[in-house]
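Much of our argument rests on the idea that a fold can be written as discrete symbols. In the encoding step, the backbone of a single protein was reduced to a row of integers, each denoting a local shape. This step matters because it turns folding into a mapping between discrete strings. For completeness, the protein is quoted in full, as a sequence line and a line of structure tokens:
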Amino acid sequence: MVSRFFCPEPLPESGEIPLPEPVSHHALRVLRLPDDAPLVLFDGTGREVAARLVVRGKRAFAELGAWSEPVRESPLELVLVQALASADKMDWVMQKAVELGASRIVPVRAARSVLRLSGERAAKRVAHWRQVAVAACEQCGRNRVPEIGDIVDLAVHLSAGRDAVEFVILDPHAGEPLTSLGAPQRARHLLIGPEGGFDELELAACRAAGARALRMGPRVLRTETAGLAVLASMQALWGDL
């Protein structure tokens, strides 16, 4: 497979460019790519460019070739609102949600969240998750890196989007199955609780914000499974799968 790399600064249309230091390090020191190895670069605008690696000593450059704009984004605007879970579970959710086409991921604090983050620790973890999202895009072929939001309280997120989006929450005891929902006509936010689930006050807040409770079968799904299962199901029903 041809190695793909995200370059955060806008790429020129042609010519030779120095690769950003993190990309250069990954290409030369981690992947040990040889001179003239084929590459694909993207800068988040939706396009990608074929390139060739140019190695000069310890520096890596890329000779840009033909641009293309393959369609790899989902036609659905699906936002995963994931309550904080343990660190390894959050990394897994971030990676797989990007692969499954989530347009945005919002980490939220919940009463039963095992992971507690604030201040500098929260900022560092969000920066880490954003790098996880970049790596997932490089692997899966997406040319737009979905936004990973700052950590906010669930109530803050619910109040900010109440009039412009559609909220969905899973409940194994709900009367309606997911298939009764229909294709989204606007941004659809999938509210996923932590390991212990949302508490009663949080569930009441979700209902007050207009969240529609739906079931994904009779079994209770783990927090790291639930959001991914919904994303995959919605893509299969109405998206690009």
Summary: Residues 78-238 form a domain with the Alpha/beta knot fold (CATH 3.40.1280.10).
